[in-house]
Amino acid sequence: MSNEIEPPPPSSSPKQQFLHVRREPFEYGLLPIPKLIFSDGIVTLTDLKHKLLLKAAASSSNRINAADISEILQISIDNAHIVLETLASILPFDSDPIVNAKPNEIDSVGVNVFDLILFLYIQSYKRLLPRTHKDSAVVSDVWPSTSAFDGCLSAMSPLQLVRSNSRRFVPSQVDEEMHQLSYLQKHFANILSLLADSVEGNENDDEAMVLTLERFEHLGFIIQFRENGSERIPLSQAAPFFFPATQVHDWILQNILAALEHSGEKVSPKETSPANTTDQDIAMTDASGSPSKGSHGARSINFVEAISKTSVVKQPSDLKGSSIKVLNCHDSVIYILAPLQYATVYGCSDATVVLGAIGKAVRVEHCERVQVITAAKRICIANCRECVFFLGVNQRPVFLGDNHKLQVAPFNTFYSQLGMHMTQVGIDANINKWDEHLVLGMVDPHDSLSHPAGVSDVQADSAACLDPDHYTNFLIPNWFGDDPPEATKHNPFSLPEVYMKSQQKNYQSAEEIKQALRDLRLEDNKKRELSNALHLYFKDWLYASGNIRQLYCLQGD
């Protein structure tokens, strides 16, 4: 059989291989669409696999489009498009045409049936429960019990009130990976059975099930191997010589057990050391830009965590890897001015977060009174309250969970390298779907929280469009030094006419006020009174609008 797995070439020097779970499908690929979640193991999925393969038979590449997905899974065409767009953002195979497809080409390219099957299977995954912070002093500093903005807020919904009783903090990277490894350990036999083929019609004989090389490589959707903890290697190169699916199963389980043991060794020193309050087990960059000890290069995730009443600026030279997480920041301005693939903003309040160019996916979750400004391929917003999103996005924004009083507006900023960064990660400035919202369910079936009866059938709140009269440009200081010849000098996304007219009107009004002030003939003491009054009103506006945070970056160290 020419497609079966061949033994890897002999290696001249032994290298230690570690199995890792790909976090992207579990962090950015779970959709709260009930018809995508199957509680009967592989019974339904096996039947769906046969239907999908029959539908894809006309294509030599086993690919399927949104219309076929909608028909077979019995979901709306909008949800089918979201499935395709989500898969395009989390697949690891750069050679797959859907990964590099333009936004308007994703449906015509379609997705491989076996990638879709794996995607559907992991929709059964339950996220690790959010943890409470061990250091109450840190919590009280970053999340004050009262906020200067609280007097302006409406009452929380019942579900938000339940969740607000204790501030939730995202689990550590090691805890999450161990949880994901345990999930795969439990479910890997089912996953393999969906990829394997029977020999000579022996469908009920596990020993007769085999994996072709092409099917085996699809496991790279959820797992990967790295040599010495950093260098990623192809699955077929990491594999020993085997044919039957049972041998693949045994080999993978051995590697999962080794990975769990290895992760347990990494987490134990942290658990026994009360002084250690950050996760240094998976390589990261801290808020000051210094890599943590034990950096694993390609596995790096950058963290900006627990920042309060200050500004943080991250440029490409400050970051390692292709992902960033902004966690539990309060009353601050966070500038991420770099080309990245993934970004998460979690548990922030009264903050402004600027995400320069995110080529795969942004997820914003459990945030309150936050402004997020981002140029991205796609964005998912969950369980947020009183937030405003200034978006330049190539795909429809997805809203899910218990959102409350959200607003969206067109992208409103630029910095000198933004255009270059957008090109690097494949964001098209000619496409901005900032106001084409897709709203999913209020309850995320992938979390492990309990929910009131009947809430699971309620649709999440959408977002209102920001009043054009309240739309303003956000100015980013020039931290890049001399501008390159190709420097971006204005907002790369075109503004809708109503926002453009409002900007022109506000600019004209400001010019008229400045001219009127210049024309005033006042005595010196009256000029001082006027100057003091203007200064006072401007200060009040800075605090009332939250724009006072933008001045943090001007403060000295």
Automatic annotation (TrEMBL):
<feature type="compositionally biased region" description="Polar residues">
    <location>
        <begin position="270"/>
        <end position="280"/>
    </location>
</feature>
<dbReference type="InterPro" id="IPR039589">
    <property type="entry name" value="TBCC1"/>
</dbReference>
<dbReference type="InterPro" id="IPR016098">
    <property type="entry name" value="CAP/MinC_C"/>
</dbReference>
<keyword id="KW-0206">Cytoskeleton</keyword>
<comment type="similarity">
    <text>Belongs to the TBCC family.</text>
</comment>
<keyword id="KW-0963">Cytoplasm</keyword>
<feature type="domain" description="C-CAP/cofactor C-like">
    <location>
        <begin position="291"/>
        <end position="427"/>
    </location>
</feature>
<feature type="region of interest" description="Disordered">
    <location>
        <begin position="264"/>
        <end position="297"/>
    </location>
</feature>
<keyword id="KW-0175">Coiled coil</keyword>
<dbReference type="InterPro" id="IPR012945">
    <property type="entry name" value="Tubulin-bd_cofactor_C_dom"/>
</dbReference>
<dbReference type="InterPro" id="IPR006599">
    <property type="entry name" value="CARP_motif"/>
</dbReference>
<dbReference type="InterPro" id="IPR017901">
    <property type="entry name" value="C-CAP_CF_C-like"/>
</dbReference>
<dbReference type="GO" id="GO:0000922">
    <property type="term" value="C:spindle pole"/>
</dbReference>
<feature type="coiled-coil region">
    <location>
        <begin position="500"/>
        <end position="533"/>
    </location>
</feature>
<protein>
    <recommendedName>
        <fullName>TBCC domain-containing protein 1</fullName>
    </recommendedName>
</protein>
<dbReference type="InterPro" id="IPR036223">
    <property type="entry name" value="CAP_C_sf"/>
</dbReference>
<dbReference type="Pfam" id="PF07986">
    <property type="entry name" value="TBCC"/>
</dbReference>
